[in-house]
Amino acid sequence: MHQSLRPYVTAGIAVLGAGMVAVTPVAAASAVDIQPMPEVALTAGVGLGDIDFTQAWTDAFDTAKDNFTAVQAAASDASSALTDALKAADFSTLDFNQLSAALTFLAGDQKTFLNTLAPQTMDDLHAVVYMVLTDPAGQLTGGEPALPEDLLPLVNFAASPLSGQLFAALGPSISPMVALINSFEAISANLSGADGASPDVTAALQEMVNIPANMVNGMLNGATFNLDALAPALEGAGLLPEGMGVDGISLAFGGLLSPGSVAGVTDGGAGESLIGSVGGSIFNALGLNLTGVPLLDTLDLEPNGIGPLGAFAMMQNVLAQWLSGELPALEPAEVDPGAGVADVDWLSGFDLGDLFGLSA
Question: Which interval of the chain is the signal sequence (predicted)?
Answer without folding.
Answer: 1-28
